[in-house]
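Notebook p. 47: complex prediction with 4'-deoxy-4'-aminopyridoxal-5'-phosphate.
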Amino acid sequence: MNSPFVQSNVSRDQTLRDRAARVIPGGMWGHQQVGALPKGYPQFFASGSGARVTDVDGHEYIDFMCAWGPIILGHRHARVEEAANAQALLGVCLDGPTENAVELAELMVATVAHADWTLFQKNGSDAMTTCVTVARAATGRRKILIAKGAYHGAVPWCSPSLVGVTSEDRTHLMHFTYNDIESLNAAVAEAGEDLAAIVVSAFRHDLAVPQELPEAGFAKAVRAACDETGGVMIVDDVRAGFRLNMGGSWEVLGIRPDMSAFSKAIANGHALSAVTGTDRFREAANSVFVTGSFWYSGAQMAAAVATINELNRIDGPALMQRAGQRLRDGLDEQATRHGFELHQTGPCAMPLVQFVGDDKQASLGDAFCGEALRRGVYLHHKHNMFLSTAHTDAEIDRALDATDSAFAALSKHRPAKTGAPE
Ligand code: PMP
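Predicted complex, structure tokens below:
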């Protein structure tokens, strides 16, 4: 927090950006670089509590990004932090895992419907890479099928950017279109006897395009293609895991994968990921060499045990669905009243909000988010947002008060437009 005795026109955020620009390439790396967000979005944060985050200049926001997914029970959830701190006080890294590893593995197997076993890593990219490695070990095959535009991690085999990636890294990667059975079957046929795995995300959440829930026929076709060819069905539940369904995101469709990757929300912000699998792949999972210096540390696992127990206890997914529906309905009502039309897609707990008729740069979305930010609500207009169980009715209603005023400010500047989003 700034000292009240130091007067300066330069924000602490700007001072940190200037310092970072000298010692961090580009001033910040990766997806938390705010360059693509509307002007005024802070780059640096000081703290979080419940559904709120506070930036380094002391501005507090109702947070609809939840650290881009990891925060699912609200920032600094007491039970989670207590469990993590208790383990950390006993040792952060030891010569082997702690008791928590077994407790968490048992909990994952009891919670995730298809899981007979689990392995822990740190990031979603680790977990997805482990899935693919186990699938290749189990089948002795090479081809991995993924949906076009899907994100599976920041590693050469699947990174959305080809900068610094060789074509050899991608030799055995093939694409199909999400929810398109014909394109899926064409890719399966092309992979032929070399098909190791089909990877699907929980729903279609490509960057900056409307989100799509999986169609039941498509989910069935993915399962059937794997059953017929012996390929491994992998659900990337890194982003959606435990936000939509504690048993796995495709449980509602009645389709179970062979392996899944979880990360983001499983430890309410503590760095952890998990691969779950069925017995058929137990031996392969045992045969591959997957490891990391920090993959066994106990504090994050203690946090995960507390997080999953709490989500189970309060039926977290139902609460987030309800909160997201309240936000969605409120925004729709406000948009109509102010002469705009919204295109709200994806699950309510992970909403993407776009303006019908917006231009390619999403200028209306940009302006709206900027107005909301100035009124204390942190939104994102090109990436799905995230609800947490700390988004109570009162927090949603406070956020809606602010967005109502943001719509009013927007309508003064821009005429309402019609037509589908471009
Ligand atoms: N898969 C999906 C669907 C994701 O959303 C992400 C992270 N945004 C990843 C994989 C990679 O996870 P991480 O950033 O933890 O490596």
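Notes: The chain has eleven helices and 13 strands. The mean pLDDT is 95.
Next step: compare against the earlier run before touching the bench.
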